[in-house]
């Protein structure tokens, strides 16, 4: 094998480690997010509720952005896990703030009000971008 190919393959264990950590953190985020929200996102999505799909999709993107930054800037798996956990907490708290700002948000999402879902998603993505940019250590 050429030296270039060997150098590329040498990074594979790190890729697998960070990738699986990220998948675990995304799964934890989904669990915590769906636990903290009073509406059942997955059931609503199965019922073709666009507002729930947009809101949940925005929350996922809002979490994935800082998680990506944590992977990029971390010094180790532990460092990445810590900053990933911080991103998780920030994103879950974002829902609480948005819920306070937009009265009856869960009820509106339950009713399929797309505007409420878009607003929630936009706030989640905006906070995710700010959170991500803040992770430049």
Automatic annotation (TrEMBL):
Q: Is the GTP-binding keyword given for this protein? A: no
* Subcellular localization(s) per the UniProt record: Cell membrane
**Main location, first listed in the record:** membrane
Keyword ATP-binding listed? The answer is no
Protein origin, superkingdom: Bacteria
Alphabetic keyword roster = Cell membrane, Membrane, Transmembrane, Transmembrane helix
Similarity comment: family membership: Belongs to the UPF0719 family.
The identity of this protein, by name, is Membrane protein
Q: From which source organism is this entry?
A: Rheinheimera soli
């Amino acid at each position: 094998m050429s030296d270039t190919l060997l150098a590329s393959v040498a990074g594979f264990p790190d890729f697998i480690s960070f990738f699986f950590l990220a998948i675990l953190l995304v799964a934890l985020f989904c669990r915590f997010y769906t636990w903290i929200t009073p509406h059942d996102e997955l059931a609503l999505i199965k019922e073709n509720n666009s507002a729930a799909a947009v809101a949940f999709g925005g929350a996922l993107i809002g979490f994935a952005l800082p998680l990506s930054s944590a992977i990029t800037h971390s010094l180790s798996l532990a460092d990445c896990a810590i900053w990933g956990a911080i991103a998780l907490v920030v994103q879950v708290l974002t829902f609480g703030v948005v819920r306070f700002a937009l009265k009856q948000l869960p009820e509106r999402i339950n009713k399929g009000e797309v505007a409420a879902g878009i607003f929630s998603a936009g706030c989640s993505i905006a906070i995710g971008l700010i959170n991500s940019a803040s992770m430049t250590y």
